[in-house]
Design brief:
This protein is mostly helical. It is built from 10 helices and no strands.
Amino acid sequence: MLIDKIKNLLGKSSKSKIDRVKNLVDEILKIEQLDPANNGEQLNQCLDAMEEQTNRIREQANDYPNYSIKADIWIEGLALANYAEVLANFLDDKNFLAEQERTTNLWAKITLSVCSHYHHLVGPAMIASASISEKTGKLDYAKAVYGAVLKDFQTILENIELDDTEPDEDSLTAINSLNTAATRLMELDAATDVHPLAKETQSRIASILN
């Protein structure tokens, strides 16, 4: 499991600056009946700490992967993204839509800062960010995110088609995100029919998977 690998890596760093975030997330996950009146302040404290560390890591990521990144910053960023993902998923069926949106956007931001060239990590975070934006009525932003995935993930299909190989697990995760982006763009703009690339993408995905 990714989270176990992260814990092992962080265990080698005695001064990890995201320990407090981890502990705060763990405390939230232990709450069986999360309630805005009783747990809202606790959740916001967790998100404040998560945002603080997200901003720190984004500043120290050194425009990775265009330039090198310190190993401890990369490890902490990957761990933080995982904690944000876990918390966002935990909040999915709770009455905390604004907090889920904030958590999901932090997950996407930190993932893009340290793992932007890992499509199988970026894809789920971006799709989650777009999906929660749909729920909160930010349709223009959601379509912009879906559009970015649709454009940036074309290389996944190109590489598979060029090599004529079966997609591995990571590639399948990325392809699933790409397919979701194409589908949602077509559904959101069904009346205008302005997404030929989305249609073409779906056709190519079907050919690869069948």
